[in-house]
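INTERNAL AUDIT FORM
Audit reference: QA-55
Scope: verify that the stored structure record matches its stored sequence.
Auditor: D.O.
Record contents follow.
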Amino acid sequence: MFASAAALAQTVDTTTWYTIVADSGPTLGHVSLEITPRADGRDLIESQEINLREHGSLPYRARTRTVLSEDAAGNATSIESVSRVGRFRTRTSAHIRDGRVEIERETPSGRSRETVLLPPGVRFDDGDALVQNWAPEITPRLEFLNFDSDALAVERIVIEAQGAPDARGRLSAVRLRYEGDQLRGVSRIVLERGRVVEVSQPMFGETFRTRLTDRETAQRSHPPYRVIPNMAQRSPYRLTAEARRGHIRIRYAFRDGVTFPLPVTGEQRARTEGEFVTLDICTECGPGLPTDAATLADASRATAWLQSDHPRLRAMAAAVRGFNVSDARKMELLLERAKPYLEDADFSGHYSALDILERRSGDCTEAAVLLAALGRAAGIPTRVVSGLAYSRESYHGVSNAFIPHSWVVAYVDGRWRSFDLALREFDSGHIALTIGDGDPRSIAAAGQLASLLRLDSIVEVRRRSS
């Protein structure tokens, strides 16, 4: 969710502390960066702690410690990360050699391995060295490939200066993160003499700032941040059940001059005109995702989050896979099979399909991940969609609002169709902002993109009576 502390500290020889605060006032947590010299290089140790709470549940702390090791020449050699959410522990180890990264991820449900090939020129420093020597008046735009230690994937980074330095010599710039052509993150940085002194990130209408501070301030006790109530977007109108079963047209204005394409699904069509984007959402409003062989194959493969090739998931899907019914019906049956594993609501962290089977709890993101994995295990191409869903009833103390949500699109019976395990049914109150494979990056990106959209109008489109 938050920018790397390394992007703030750059060159220090002691522990540096940062606090994470929301513009509305609450503190979320803190970050520290320690640079430890070794005989053959150095270690950059980043620690982050966030204190959160959901409505009706106990508070919990999310802690992450990441160690990036470099050799004497400054080349990244390994990344070791341990994260804890409550009592759930995840350990990730990445070794960098010969143009690739070998990744091993370990959770209570087991181990997984994958290899990421590195393109030429990829960086591991978030562009720190480039920013330190940046002359925006000569080169107003920096663009490079970076391996993100949180996503464990290669991203394309674009940094653009926003005007001239102020009276204090501070320069503002926007930092955009892309996965291929899809926008996955937006932050604003403030530079002072080549050093980043503040990073701000939008998230569901809030702006979170990571600021340089002292240890005492960073570690000061504070109430847990309530996620859903603060991230819900109030609707100017109450959407009836009848309207949500029909055709809804939503118009958004892009904020802060940042425009980006919104995804299309089998139910959502998007049309961008200048600073506005119009979404039409209904049962057959959208053209759906591509249906070429490569796209369907990619939506059928096992991933680190959708372990559809694991014997346990394949066994759960085996009987449904063999039924002589439509693929749409198979998805409905898989939805029923997944329900018992999500009877206990838990809004902490984000977990893989196998982790969900072990924990037997989760929220809408876990529901989407599990259903998508079961779909693939049954031979049905699936993707995880993240965005917003309208809730008329009180949810986490908020009603008549669009709340963060995830669901599944599946290629069934010759078309892409949406299935929602968490809400049990899909309707036109769902707004798709990102499409991925259940990975935290694409899910978190939906929260960022939502904050870059301002609701302009909502219209119920009714057919003319003949």
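Auditor finding: record pair retrieved intact. Residues 1-13 have pLDDT under 50 and may be disordered.
Action required: none
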